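Lab intake sheet, docking and co-folding queue.

SAMPLE TYPE: protein with bound small molecule
LIGAND NAME: zinc ion
LIGAND FORMAT: SMILES
REQUESTED OUTPUT: full 3D complex as structure tokens
PRIORITY: normal
SUBMITTED BY: R.K., bench team

The fields below were copied directly from the construct record.
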Amino acid sequence: MVDLNCRLFLPLALMLVSASPLSAQPRHAEAHVHGTGLLMMVVDGSTVSIELTIPGSDIVGFERQATTPEEQSSVENAIATLSQPTGLFAFTPDTACTVKAATAEFRAHDDHHHAEFTASYALDCPGLAAGDVELRTGLFDQFNRAEALNVDGLVDGVAQSGTLTRQQPAMTLR
Ligand SMILES: [Zn+2]
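RESULT FIELD (auto-filled):
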């Protein structure tokens, strides 16, 4: 009986142990890790929603309001690049995506010592509706200070997570 109980309850216990650190850690904007951005993604059939958060140091090399014309133009250029998701993300097999919405901004808070770029995208990619899908990013080619992007996703209701890096800029989604 003891053996049976162990077998039944161990998987549940493991689930509880692995789930609790996540729920116990609220995400603070100031707790980001330099060099690592976050990509939250939901894929539902052909519909893709992406939320991107990347430390300012990864994109423009500073984390405060731009103070010189050069810094101001760095921020504007970065926002322009981040506003074009099809230049930053693509899928394998190759799929043409229509951009339904795309916004990007730079948030610097004077009372924090960090600043971030955030972007959100809504895409329609008919080729994603079925079959194997790989996500790849050109982010590291666009921003030479960025090193990694942690991915948390929900693909047709199935949780997917992984890390895109300069060395490995692609991951399987389905
Ligand atoms: Zn920072």
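REVIEWER NOTE: The chain has one domain: 28-172.
SIGN-OFF: pending second check by T.M.
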